Each structure stands twice: as structure tokens, then as C-alpha cells.
Amino acid sequence: MAETGATNLEMLCRSAKDSDRVALLPLTIRSVGDQCLLLRMDTGAMVRTSSLGAEAVRLLRKGNSIGRVKAVLGEKYGFRAENVDLTPLLHSLAVKDLIVKIGEEPLLSRLDPVWARKWRSASRALAARSIAFAIRYVPLSSLLPLLYEQRQERSPQMLARVEGNLGRAPGLRLPAADRRTVAQLNCDLLLRTHIDRLLVSTLPPRRLREWFEEYMTVEGGAGLEEAVRSGKRVVLCGFHTGSYSLLPFLLAAKGYPVTALIHAAKAEQQTAEQTVVRLAKAGLGHDLALAYGSLGVRALSRALDAGRPVLILPDAFVADAGHGVPVDFLGVNLRPSTGLEWLCRSREVEVFPVYLQTAPDGRYRLIIDQGISVQPDRPQDAITKRVYSVLEKVVASAPEQWLRWKDLDNMVSN
Q1: pTM attached to this predicted model
Q2: d(Cα 192, Cα 209) in Å, to the nearest integer?
Q3: CATH number assigned to the domain with residue range 201-411, chosen from the 4 options 1.10.890, 3.40.1130, 1.10.10, 2.60.120
Q4: Please, where are the H alpha helices in 50-175?
Q5: Between the CA atoms of 271, 273, 275 and 280, what dihedral angle is there, to the nearest 10 degrees?
Q6: What is the pLDDT of residues 228-282, one digit of tens each?
Q7: Which element (helix H / strand E) includes 200?
Q8: What is the largest CA-CA distance in the chain?
Q9: Rounded Cα gap, residues 286 and 282, in angstroms
Q10: pLDDT (tens digit, 9 = 90+) per residue, 391-408?
Q11: Where are the domains of the chain?
């Protein structure tokens, strides 16, 4: 890609004129439930979008200008063309190196010939089959280092974005000279989460049990066990650290009954439900329920009143989605979601921060922090502030572990 930082890249997409045309690399559009995936087959780069976004890409590929795409979509779906904002879509495509140029502005400085791209695509297909075989039969002690070994080149845009956001948090007190190293570790860990999702959805039950029992340990938890035994309402607050998507499965595998809120497209929901079944077959996670989307918070409320611990990740929201009172986080103000406050409203609740961290030897530690008692007469935003103060300490002690750095600039409350 041309020498364009993450911030400049976003500015370029925002400054695109209606008369500009967008030159895209060859890509495949696949429907997955109510979402669409835009795939660059030679590198595996992928952008998830809505059916509306996929339709915009189809129109751009036909040589329509940005303004013409807005007009067509506006006419078809009943809104004004000037209210159609293609900037987020263009930025996502640009970050994944799917745009050659916008107007006369080049985004890719060099494009490999067709034969080279096709060779890489065939190589990836062969590698995928090899990985599938390895997941079933290669011992975990050999498989995991092989999968986790850094082969994929870090995205320069993502690296620059994380490094820049590390500098936006004055309370972190991270020297500028160390930001690049922390950003590299953070990007590597983000890639690792995708591998872990593949493992949890594909390992045979026996090997899945071996992975959970030998490579993941629990620290703390005595307070949680006592709260569950005594019948208290328990809310588990997970953080986006380590391989955070494993949290509900690992909690269930370690014997905690839990109803977990996750955000996933319909196809991913099916995969998640299949994973619950696989855990049960492996003798793990026999008391795990999953809730999805905005309506899932109500399912959590019902579970909480029925005496089941519930899991929510309160650091998942950006400013546009958050409606809560701003909280201080490492020297900046974030506007979090009100989901946690809504769950705790008018209830006596015990809140336990829980998070995963990647240990130096590559294994995972599930850490269960001390409980925070919530009384019905407390101010509504008090529990959010206390949970974010715990998150602040966790991130300050190991900033490379928190996988929300890439979004911090969008989470800041203006």
C-alpha cells in the first residue's frame, strides 16, 4: 500500500467526491446469514458488511461513481442520496487492501500479476486442507506452536492505528519508544484470536477437552463460587483481553453455569451453538446458554432473576452505541453502553470482573477478580465506573493484552 497511515486513510475516504470512481481488486461476495463477506481470495483479506454494503460494492465494480451509487441506493430504499454514507465501507475496504485507487488517488503502490495472485490463492486452499488435517491428528504440543507462529504480515494500517491510539491514552504513561512494540504484540494477539475460534469450533471433542484442561487455568474464583452457592444474582463482566471469545466456553468448561451475551451474525450463532454441543460431548460446558444481540440483554435479565450467572462484555461498545454517563479511562472519557447498569437496576447483584490473558508460555489464564456488591439504591452509573476502574488497572498492567486499542479513537466521548 502507498505510504498512507491509518488516520490519513480514513481522511482520504471521507474526502472522496461524488464524481470519483473506485477501482477495486477482484473479490468474491458471499452471503452468510443476514451478512455478506467480501473476500480477496489471494490473501484471504475479508470485510464483513450488510446486504446494502454488498450491493454498493457491486455497483462500484460496474464503474459507477460514488454519487451514482448513492443515488441508486437512495432511490431503491427510499432515502435521500446525501444521507447515504459510503465512508465506513470504503475505509473497511481500504484497510484490507481491497481498493486500488479512489478517483486519481492510488491506495496500492504495487499490484502483483494475476498468475501470482492465483498461485497464492491455490496455496492458501492447500494450506487450509493441511491445517484441517493437523487439527484432527497432530498432537497439541506441536500443533499450537505451528498455528500461532507469526506468518501473516501485520497490516501496516492496523499497526499504525493501534500505535496511535496507545498515544491517545495519557494515563497509560507508555513511552513513545515502546508503543510500536506493544502495538505489534497487540496485533499478533488479535490474529491469534481468529486461530482460537477455529480451534474451538473444529477440534474433535477429546482434543477440545485436552486443550481446555491442559492449556487454560483459572486464578481466583472463591468469591464467585460462594456467591453462586448462596443464590446471589451474579453478573460476570468480561473484558476484551486475550482470546476473549473463549470466555463463555471456558467458564462453562470449568464448571460455572452461565448465560452469555454474544454479538454474532446468524451463521456465527449456528457455529456457537454447535460449539456448545461439542463442549457437552467432550464432558465440558454442560450448563451453558447463549443469548444474542440487543434482545439478548432481556434474556440475561430473565436468567439473572432465575438465579443463573450471566456474562456480558461492557467494553464492547463505541461512542455511537453508548448512551451511558462518560467514564474516565486512562486519561480519556469513554461513553459506555448502559447494558450493565440496566441489568443491575433495582436489584441486589454481585458483579465479578473476569478476563483472559495470554501467559508468556502461550497458555491462557482465566482471572476472576473480587466481587463488587451492587445495592439497588446506588447511582445507576456507579457500577460501570467501578468496573472500568478495574479494566483500567488490567490494561495499564498489560496494555498489549487489550484488543480494543484499535477502536479507542471511536470510543472516546466528544
Answers
A1: 0.70
A2: 19
A3: 3.40.1130
A4: 51-61, 66-77, 87-95, 114-137, 140-148, 156-167
A5: -160
A6: 899 899 999 999 999 998 999 999 888 888 999 887 666 577 778 888 888 888 8
A7: helix 176-202
A8: 67
A9: 9
A10: 999 999 999 999 999 888
A11: 6-106, 201-411
